[in-house]
């Protein structure tokens, strides 16, 4: 069932998200947890809200566009080392990630984003 209904506002900032601990093999620092709520679809895209608490984790990305609605973080994009690109995330940031990109997310203030994947 889709939470997104045409003509009805969904308050992404206040959607309740249940968190789970990040798997140990992905934890880089701290004890981060993540949670996600799928809001619905639009064409072939999934739309949802994702949140991560303070800490750092590695990940392999899906093809997505997201908008940060709360929190602060930095994301290091592959290939890593001296060639790594770091993006800074603050509310209002709009980011496009490509499928298969390896990343390290370092969250300094619980991060919440609305994604389209």
Helix content: under 10%
CATH topology: Jelly Rolls
Q: What order do the helices and strands follow? A: EEEEEEEEE
Which CATH C-level class is it? Mainly Beta
The radius of gyration computed from the alpha-carbon positions, rounded to a whole number of angstroms, is: 14 Å
Quick synopsis:
This protein has strands at residues 20-21, 27-29, 33-42, 45-52, 55-60, 64-77, 85-89, 94-97, 102-116. It has 117 residues and is mainly β. The protein has a single domain, classed as Jelly Rolls.
Characterization of this structure:
The chain has no helices and nine strands. The radius of gyration is 14 Å and the shape is globular. Helices cover 0% and strands 57% of the residues. The chain has strands at residues 20-21, 27-29, 33-42, 45-52, 55-60, 64-77, 85-89, 94-97, 102-116.
